[in-house]
Amino acid sequence: MSGEAMLVFDEGLTAYDFGHGHPMSPIRVDLTVRLARALGVLDQLKVVPAPIADDALLQTVHTAEYIAAVKRAGEHPDVPDLDHGLGTDDTYCFPRMHEASAHVVGASVEAARAVWEGDVVHAANISGGLHHAMPAMASGFCVYNDPAIAIQWLLDHGAERVAYVDVDVHHGDGVQTVFYNDPRVLTVSLHESPTTLFPGTGTAGETGGPDAEGSSVNVPLPPGTGDAGWLRAFHAVVPDVVKAFRPSVLVTQHGCDSHVEDPLAHLTLTIDGQRAAYQALHDLAHEVCDGKWVATGGGGYAIIDVVPRAWTHLLAIVAGQPIDPSTAVPEGWREDIQIRFGRVAPSRMTDGRDAAYTDWSTGYNPDTWLDRSIKATRDVSFPLLGLDPTY
Fold first, then answer.
1. Sign of the C-alpha dihedral, residues 31, 34, 38, 43?
2. Which of 20, 97, 142, 345 could cross-link with 130 by S-S, CB 3.0 to 4.6 Å?
3. pTM
4. CATH of the domain at 285
5. pLDDT of 345-378, one tens digit each?
6. Does residue 352 form part of some domain?
């Protein structure tokens, strides 16, 4: 055990629901909690309910006008408000949308509060990670930006520097936008190239505003990147920039839509590569900020085969009791999947892959898109953080 850990969760968080047919089904959160419970992971965590964020808390990131628009949209879900990104093809309106979204925010802020005030060392909110929401607009399935609000809460309560690392397949554009000119926040995002995937941002050249140069680090990855390439990129950039920034606390977003089976993107990671990333972030938190770690969920649309296993691994690592990848998926959970969905669930907590990678120090290969991307990020971001981009 690496210190007492917490999961912020209650059934009300599954009310963040865009409705039948939408890829971001709250079933994925429910199935994750059920699998984590079946494997005994929840026995290693302090599980607490989530408060609902009030307007004052939401307004630390979002405009009052936008919050009012979300409330109206929840009262009249058949009336789109495209000026605020509500009722679009990806971010539908639904009844009580404001309340459900504010509940997700409350969960992430409670996780941040518990870590910052020393109640626990690590805390997670797997229903969170809604990283695309902008101060005055919904985007990409995200209504309120819970990671950004949690980070702002930390700053407002004494954190001198916060590092945010986003491993979702999509660029963490909303969080980057909120803190782009704030030197107290380092945002790091590894994501599929903006030339091939929403939201079309996150180039290596996006390095922070005029008062915060070096505070944004982006690693755009070529479609098709798998475990070995992704982990090569991660280890070539993330540990060095986070260590150089010296954060007071680490906040991470764990969208698992980088998986090869995810229907909305084009990376090819496995559960084993994702698990390795979670462990690396856990270890980094202990190395740079005394273990202070706030972890959220994020994207992930293979809701049966991928999300529950990936995030159960995440919760086990948050708890300080990682699950052996060869562990069998409990039969009761698999039977439930068969009954509810008519599907055969995975039998193991692994995809059977070795999450090995070749370290950047072995040399740069200019003939590969991956290495050119890594080098571009190192060349532009490392000097701004006082780092040498070469080995």
1. positive
2. 142
3. 0.98
4. 3.40.800.20
5. 999 999 999 999 999 999 999 999 999 999 999 9
6. yes
